[in-house]
Amino acid sequence: xxxxxxxxxxxxxxxxxxxxxxxxxxxxxxxxxxxxxxxxxxxxxxxxxxxxxxxxxxxxxxxxxxxxxxxxxxxxxxxxxxxxxxxxxxxxxxxxxxxxxxxxxxxxxxxxxxxxxxxxxxxxxxxxxxxxxxxxxxxxxxxxxxxxxxxxxxxxxxxxxxxxxxxxxxxxxxxxxxxxxxxxxxxxxxxxxxxxxxxxxxxxxxxxxxxxxxxxxxxxxxxxxxxxxxxxxxxxxxxxxxxxxxxxxxxxxxxxxxxxxxxxxxxxxxxxxxxxxxxxxxxxxxxxxxxxxxxxxxxxxxxxxxxxxxxxxxxxxxxxxxxxxxxxxxxxxxxxxxxxxxxxxxxxxxxxxxxxxxxxxx
Length: 362
Hints:
- The structure is a single chain.
- By secondary structure, the protein is an alpha/beta fold.
- It is 38% helix and 13% strand.
- The protein has two domains: 2-160 and 339-353, 3-Layer(aba) Sandwich (Rossmann fold), CATH 3.40.50; 172-335, Rossmann fold.
- The strands form two sheets. It has a six-stranded parallel beta sheet, sandwiched between helices. A five-stranded parallel beta sheet has the order 1-2-3-4-5, with helices on both faces.
- It is globular, with a radius of gyration of 21 Å.
């Protein structure tokens, strides 16, 4: 989906990394925070939309940065996907010939749905060309080393928080009123895009017959999936808000909940975890490697389950902890992932590479 590409450009003598932002929902909050953090170190980021080899002849351009790269070759046409893969290879080859630094941030090891063998080809191509590969956990680093075998340097850069991005000054009551939620009921939330991999059906199943309300809010990408969730909810515990959420609505939706549930079937990185913590909400998640690495044991900030039938009891245990303790513990975890701190190793690496034949750094 070339029309959704974005990039970071270099102007004058400042270092500005060219990036192709391939997430098809606009300028994602994660990338905004990422770019803001880099800007503090002299890397200016400017969204744009061209993906042509001729931009690589710009002598003021230091490098290119890819993120969510699978969208580069996503197409309903197999022929178009093959052509895009070949174009991607050509671009990287020419970037090297023009002595551009190539960065790849690995947000996911594979796409969430509609997986394709073309993805592995694309991942292998960029693994061979990237000078630096950014991952969001030590577990991801081990996976990338073993499976993708990149030729470049791997930097562990934890996903930063959203404390300075998502803000909510509403009371919990006002947030619940906004979404027509019952203020007197304990509320579990699954907030964000309504997609199969996020496990809404698991939550509906385990909470059937309970006295909680399950708040499911976010843009729906599959009406058949949404209909199946409504059919599964025999006791009417789920409150659906299947609409795209603005930044303020997203923050308000999290604020309306007592606990955020992240019942993903499989995940590499979770921005929802950092968003929940940034807004002072504890989480319940599966004991998958990423969550095991980030969520501390015996913490009011979150709980991990091995079997999804454990979710209701974990919820009861969390809400038995005073709200103020859950709120402060969650914020404490979020603050560990301040953006200035998480990008420091990446900046240190770039400083060793940007010099000599490259423009001055920062």
